[in-house]
Design goal:
With 163 residues, the chain is an alpha+beta fold. Helices cover 21% and strands 12% of the residues.
Length: 163
Amino acid sequence: MFKWPQTTTKPQDRYNRSFEPYFWKKKPLSALSKDEWELLCDGCGKCCLNKLLIRGKVSFTNVRCRFLDAENCLCQIYEHRFKKVSDCRDINLNTVLTEPEILPKTCAYLLLSQGKDLPSWHPLITGRADSVHSAGQSLRGRTLISETEVKDYEDHIVDWPDL
């Protein structure tokens, strides 16, 4: 049986390379390079929570994708996620503009699309990948359940203020 390779880079590695300072203030989302787009992700893991559409409203659950590492809040198979998980959502510009309700309130893409700035705890501001965790803005330490263990998603709806 084929075993999907797990992500081996450390979360901090992506902030240790050079990039234009404050690029997100100088360019619209539509003009960002692929690397710049990826750097905007704060690594909170919230987009990897399963969501339900109930009466036209998106409700977040505390059910995580089975490939989300609950400690570092990153996908273990990021480069292969669309091949392995049929309903994995690509957080791209179209998603941000047409389905903002599936993004957490703290999402950098959502904030920038609304004309807001990045929060002070964002890794691009602090230079530290773990600042999202230190600020309590990630899934680290929260009660999460793997999707492989859930029968009724409705029993796991959460109303966390940052979602």
